[in-house]
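Quick note —
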Amino acid sequence: MNIYPMIKRFFDLTLSITSFVLLWPFFLIIAIIIKLDSKGPVFFKQKRVGKNKKHFYIIKFRTMRIDTPKNQPTHMLSDPDFYITGVGRILRKTSLDELPQLLNIIKNDMSIIGPRPALWNQYDLIDEREKYGANGIIPGLTGWAQINGRDELSIGIKARLDGEYVSRMNFTFDVIIFLKTIFSVYRGVGIKEGKEKKSERKIKKTI
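Predicted structure written out below.
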């Protein structure tokens, strides 16, 4: 019997509740800044795919204008700079917009470590993850694919890395991913905002 999922849940609850209690004044400051910066709610909710493809709503600090197209990954927008707010740019660069997902972890919609939850309409990613059993575990705040390319990865590679996490999941591996996530966030590795322009693709082809 594999007892690691129970151990993992214990650490998820302990760390997320402790972090939430310690950081709530910081949450309040961010909320006030968001309200002063642009019109709209403080939080952004979006339908995502959880364990066994059950849908849930992920919670983030709002970083984009209220007229931003819904249910579309930011890196697929043709002009994301037009929609990202001033404070939103800072929150996204530092990944502080992800902090409210501590509530998702407490609710057991998410874990600290696991495959990042796909949008409900990212059918290609969901289908590809099914091949590797990655839809059968609780998605995470960060994961193996996140520290190995994040938005820069193709669907196939991302799903394969998520499957690799499923097969290797243990305490040591989770700690490694957690520590590497801190390093990746510090460096801003793998963050991609908007579709690549044709001119940029031509430049890459000539290199």
